[in-house]
Amino acid sequence: MMDARQNLLILGGGLVGMTLALAAARKGLSSHVVDRADPADLLAEGFDGRASAISTASWNLFGNIGLADRLEPLGCPIASIAVSDQLKPGAIDFRPGPEDGTLGRMFANRDLRQALFDAAKDEPLIHWHAMSEIAERHRDDFGVSVTLANGTVLHGSLMIGAEGRASPTREDAGLVVAKWDYRHRAIIAGLTHELPHRNVAWEIFYPAGPFALLPMLDTADGAHRSALVWTVDESDASGVLKLSDRAFLAELHQRMGTLFGEVIAAGPRASYPLGFHHTARVTADRLALVGDAAHGIHPIAGQGLNLGLRDVGALVQVLSDGALLGLEPGDAQLLSRYEKWRGLDAFTVALATDGLTRLFGIPGNFASAARRFGMAAVERTPALKDFFMDEARGVTGDLPEMLKE
Amino acid sequence: MDDATVSNVSHGTTQLGSGVTIRPEEAAHFGSLAADWWDPKGSSAMLHRLNPVRLRFLRDAVDMHWGGDVETTRPLDGKRALDVGCGAGLLCEPLRRMGADVTGVDASAQNIAAAMAHAEGSGLDIDYRAGELGSLGLGTFDLVTSLEVIEHVADKQRFMAQLVGHLAPDGLMVLSTPNRTARSRMLMVEGAELLGLIPRGTHDWSDFLTPEELTDLCQIVGLTVTSTQGIGFSPTKGLHLSDDLALNYILTARRRSAPTL
Predict the structure, then answer these.
(1) Nearest CB to A327: which of B1, B8, B55?
(2) Rg (CA), chain A
(3) What is the ipTM of this complex?
């Protein structure tokens, strides 16, 4: 069975892959989107308690693909970031000046996914193949294709690996990945608590690693919520996951005190390894990597998504500029422009992350978490402050058009 | 692409221009020739890198000339385009994607066979002709291009006259060629060719035209040059459009309106 050739063959239809399909459609580029998961599972309550900090630049991208109205009521603005050393008195409060714009908005990944999926269903340029396993990938001089497990062959001009950290497309292409494993895991869970968070994101440092609380919107019945990101040693992670609810709440109380009053309940817990990775190259012949498939600064963090959305903006701009010149999406000169653009950006991030780790001479989870919020370490290193404030908003570097207002 | 295949070359007999046919094994040979021409890291690497730059100039010229929508991906819909010295079709294919009915002419039958093989793989319908432009009887075109060609032509005035002969009354012509300067000799002939970025022996520097000389030639054959831009090179920006004409330049021209007597 054959399916019509589309411009893009996007492998991985998660947050980054689907945003790419929608952004490309805005520029008249058609796509196949292939994902093995069942969208119903991805949208089920409890599947993914993760939340993402959406930078101003990423927010502009969602606006440019027509999702602003839909997402506006679902995001919780971050008004300031409080950094504290083990809840001792004297927390540092980062609050942008009136001219600086917000530090971002917190979204439940599930809400982002729902909005993207709904928009993709209504977009005639997107051909979505959910619950599809890929049996074979093929790239040649004239195009790309995948053969699905059911025998369907999908064709395109450019293949895009958007499957996240363990991208099989990247592995298939033999693109080399450099990895730093910090031997720590992040425990994440949604919390409901007694007092409102006042739009403050908290970063509390403990010798074992940072403990972060990210503000989420209140539930419909008025319960106050935050997203927890708690870094623990790899060897402790499974123990934390197995704790009874009561014991888990007691652990939380020990670390966050009565910052938000009593913690009333914690949702399902999950854990993710902390690490940093990026590929030496983000392109090959008729292939581009986006999002965590190319580089991830943190598997669970909002900044990782922001980095991925910048890939989306850059790639769509390169391809649509090329289309105006009669160059097809697989054109090597276009991919070379994307490579220079995003390769450099990833290098900047690599330097910053590595620099921080060296600067403080302490385990990488500190630097990783600090960078994620664009804060913490920054106060002690004034030169880095502006860099991180801008990174949190996602406005450094050469910003793609679709990430501008 | 290093793993280039020639599987898209048809196994039947390929029609080559008017009355010239090539055998299947030759088609396979031209297929591999096409693969080399079209390999962005191969012997034509410099032309590949030049392509987006000259296409940017050409696109702006098209939008200016016909006052079209700068956002459309098919600004040449309904237009006839002729590319003279088309090689393996590096320019013809984008022109076709921009909507033009494209005719590509090259003196080398090998190049034309390579171009045909590649267009077939790309699924593009392009009319390729091998031979001398003057003897093909092609009629006139809205857009006539000849990029990086005139420096290789012996009788430049006769060549220019032939180009004009194929330009429709309101048509647009786009030409590009290296300048004859100390810098172009150093960079293009002694530099790029020695480094293998351009095939050795591609260029004879003394045959290069300065912008003034080409503008004069245009005048002689009845054209007015309407804009000229340089194509520069820098280590950080690569090849780019520039005000500096010293290395390479690209220009637009149109027929000079008949002088009022």
Answers:
(1) B55
(2) 21
(3) 0.85
